[in-house]
Amino acid sequence: MRASTRLALLIGWLGYVLIPWYLPQDGSLAGYPFGQAGTALALVLSGASPWLLPIGLALVAASLLVGREERPWIGRSLVWIGLLGLIAFFAQGFAITLPDQGIPWLAALFGGAGQAQPGMGFGALMTLFSLLLMMCHGLAYRGYCRGDLFTTSAIGIVVLLIGLFVFYPVATILQSALVESDGTLALASFFERLLSPTIWGLGCLGGGTNCGVAWNTLILAVLTGVITTLLGLACALLVLRTRMPGKRLMRAMTVLPIITPPFVIGLALILLFGRSGAITGILAEWVGIPRSRWIYGLPGVLLAQVLAFAPIAFLVLMGTVQGIAPSMEEAAQTLGAKHWSTFRTVTWPLLRPGLANAFLLGFVESMADFGNPLVLGGNFEVLSTKIFFAVVGAAHNQGQAAVLAIVLLAFTLGAFWVQQRWLGTKSYTTVAGKGDSGIPAMLPTSAKVISAVVIVPWVLLTAVIYAVILIGGFVKAMGRDHTLTLEHYRTGFAIDFSNGIFFEGAAWPSLFTTLKVAAISSPLTALIGLITAFLLTRQHFAGRRTLEFTTMLSFAIPGTVLGVAYILAFNVPPVEITGTGLILVLAFVFRNMPVGVRSGIAGLAQIDKSLDEASMTLRARSFTTLRRVVLPLLKPALITALVYSFVRCITSVSAVIFLVSAEYNLATAYIVGRVEAGEFGLAIAYSSVLIVVMAVGIALIQVGVGERKLGRRAVPVPKPKAPKQTARLTKPAVEAAK
Amino acid sequence: MQLKFWLGASVLATAAMFGSAPASAQGSLVMYCGVQEEWCRAMSTAFEKETGIKVAMTRKSAGEVYAQVKAEASNPRGDIWWGGTGDPHLQAAEEGLTEEYESAMNKDLQDWSLSQWKAAKKRAIGIYAGALGFGFNTQLIKEKGLADPKCWADLLNPKLKDDVQVADPNSSGTAYTLLATVVQLMGEDKGFDYLRALHKNVSQYTKSGAAPAKAASLGETAVGIVFIHDAVVFAVQGDPIKPVAPCEGTGYEIGSMSIIKGARNLENAKKFYDWALTPAAQALGAPAKSYQVPSNKNAPIPPQAPKMSDMKLINYDFVKYGSSAERTRLLTKWDKEIKAQPK
């Protein structure tokens, strides 16, 4: 048995013998090691929890293998010990929960009929970890994944985490679509709901009534996906491939919408383009365009979503455009291709993974978006708001919500499938071990003009919106009373210095919780996301596609449904964490993980496998390869994952609106309350503060992670000779054209 | 291995930072609050000051609280559910999610408060009332050359086409109150005729019940049908909006309070329940910009509050229209006969 397996076993014993097995009530250790805060061993010996005995037996069996020479049967035994231990662990956990719940026959089998147990705590967590590692190590001994302990363990951990925090809650909520509250199967009402005309109706084609909510959502998501991808691409090309002035400013500006709390863009759009909005007023007075309510409905929601999500596409495509090896484009030009045909035949095809990922993100984001349709939707209904109100509205129809969630899920997964088809099995490798000293080609003029024409108005609109948001916090009532005031900031963020420092403002507690949750969950998100991406692209194991599919699942599930699912799944033992800060962290990690995975996959697709293989040939293990070779090249992906999850922790509403508790309230939940109460001033002021906080956070992340060094020549300062060279190069082509 | 341990360690560290279950020791109370943040805060701090019991308060809309209480039913986290429109409270009572209680304060309460208590079979009690009505934007109405609307019938004026907002009764208790009010006031057939005619003037069925008041105060719509106190909030702020109690008569909501079944701090929940019915506790609404009418006869009525005595109130049947069977029937009918119709 190898040293690391022994260490894993030690962790298991610590968790079983020393650390309290259950989650302590009130954080007290009363009654240690028996009673409430008892350890598993003490509870088994005293006869209080006999169902924990099989888990201990698994640890004993594993201990018998310590010190033996490595033989095939050791690996086989370890696999069985780990597997049986895990089965015993989960079986007792789900069988014995609250009084009168759980699985009675299984509980009786464990000798705990009619008994109850609280949620699992640190002891259980450590033991679980140990059992899992033993199974994975056993598999590695048997030669799985080239016998690499790190790979098998990482796969095991990722699968367990996704199973527990994505699949299990989602299954819980979907179960409520199929099963009535009394436990009987209800297929008839399920299909009746699923095929209802409110979902699939086509009334809008014939005129008059509204279309089904499914079509609305689909149209909106496709439009958002396409427009955000194109904007993101135009923007990335302009920033990286032109000498356009003001690039840095533009780069900063396009990132602004991403760090804006939801509701705020919608609110600003209403203040600008609503019937009494500022721009509407100007247009009505100067140009004579009558005031209308066009902003409420598809146009408004689309506008808000494009403003909000195009920056994500931009971030994804920046990485891709940067990663395209200039030498390929140079090769094309050397072979006589003009700018435009180089772009069309070389650059564009290489952009495809980035484009596909950017579209997918925009599409899925739009489907899951909740804040903008809520504020600007008008009579244009989409699935996410419909689900929210099916859960919390006057109808209180959880079954309906689950059915709608299934439709939403089907759309998202469909998009995922189409994306896979489009990319096919072509190679997109551009970062290879061979030296690449090319200079990125400049954009052809026509593409430059098109990009600029699209981007400049968009950036201007963004600027105006942010002016509204910035000013809104400092005036009494935006649009009505423009007296300057600090009142909103004083209400939210007053600090009393008279007696030490006392954070008096109403917004402080939620701000502190938000920052704490974001600071903990974003590194975890990035870590789990990138490791998963590495496993998915670089390792071959059974169930790889299924795993990839499951990672997208939590992203496809709208936040509202995920929130309710988390409450249903984690309010009862074995995992009892509602009302804690931990549930917020977990919800964020597993909701944002897909972005880490997607950007990791897009980044890894560009890095030649020969780099890993060279590292492996030099006898580095896969962890070393990951750390020394892959991670440094993945810095853009790492930044994307960190920035995105940090920002999403601060800005998301729907996923957490059910999960916030009195003790752990979040900034967005607080802002939504302010908006509901009509206190736009405070809401906008708080949002401005959040924007500043996120900007600082992003800057820290970028400085902390640093840039990827690809060993390419920098774009040289334009020399006087340059035009001559170009002329010489293109001369033959010009002559040929004659 | 290093990375793996780092992962494990950070999970543990996270768990250690947040893992402790919410305090449920004696001397605390978990309150789900269904009114505006400020009022919620005022209530929880006042109670904390008076009794020394630590209150952990979460503010959510009535529907959200209901959804949460239902989701947590097998392992309740909350103790008391204070505020929010009465229907979800009745629904929770019907499903046995809340606890029966009879307070010594009952003798001082208005009749409508006690009738809510009887309708809920002792499981919910009225703490404030608010009448349904509408708010109109004075500037927009003047621009259109209309007289100030005073009655339900005035809202059918063709000049108000696409200029009335009301919430969708499927998502909002306010709008369901309108539906039930119109049916009780005019009879079911005439009531639906009215709603059908109103449908032509409605630009948008909003999601949230109070949203039309906000839209009217911003000038996004000329008329918003809301609870009158929701319009008063904006009028007091100085917005160009005027609240109206319709001349034909109108229905009302009874904001309620329930003790959650299986509450971990049952005794404290009862203490809060008794305290919340005292005149002093009920006087906390007005300073927090909530202008509902309190249920204790001795509590002062805020001067800005719409005077219930000056309005024509219908005899609202909370038992019938609060039951889930009648609600589902009316909502299905509304969906089919009103919302699905072209304008």
From TrEMBL, chain A:
The residues that cross the membrane are 7-23, 43-66, 78-98, 118-137, 149-171, 218-240, 252-274, 294-318, 401-418, 449-472, 517-537, 549-569, 575-593, 680-703
Q: Which GO terms describe its biological process?
A: transmembrane transport
Domain ABC transmembrane type-1, chain residue ranges per copy? 214-419, 511-701
Task: Note the topology in the membrane.
Answer: Multi-pass membrane protein
One GO cellular component assignment for this chain's record is: plasma membrane
Q: What is its main location?
A: membrane
Pfam families to which the protein is assigned, alphabetical: BPD_transp_1
Q: Which family does the record claim for this protein?
A: Belongs to the binding-protein-dependent transport system permease family.
Task: Name the PANTHER family for this protein.
Answer: FERRIC TRANSPORT SYSTEM PERMEASE PROTEIN FBPB 1-RELATED (PTHR30183:SF7), MOLYBDENUM TRANSPORT SYSTEM PERMEASE PROTEIN MODB (PTHR30183)
Q: What is this protein called?
A: Iron(III) transport system permease protein
* Protein species of origin: Chelatococcus asaccharovorans
From TrEMBL, chain B:
Molecular function terms, GO-annotated: thiamine binding; thiamine pyrophosphate binding
Q: Which domain of life is it from?
A: Bacteria
Concerning CDD domains, the annotation shows: PBP2_Fbp_like_1
Instruction: Indicate the secretion signal residues.
Output: 1-25
| Record keywords | Signal
What GO terms describe the biological role, i.e. biological process, of this protein?
A: thiamine transport
Q: Name one GO cellular component term.
A: outer membrane-bounded periplasmic space
Per the record's keyword annotation, is Signal included, yes or no? Answer: yes
Taxonomic placement: Bacteria, Pseudomonadati, Pseudomonadota, Alphaproteobacteria, Hyphomicrobiales
What's one Pfam family the UniProt record gives for this protein? Answer: SBP_bac_6
Q: What is this protein called?
A: Iron(III) transport system substrate-binding protein
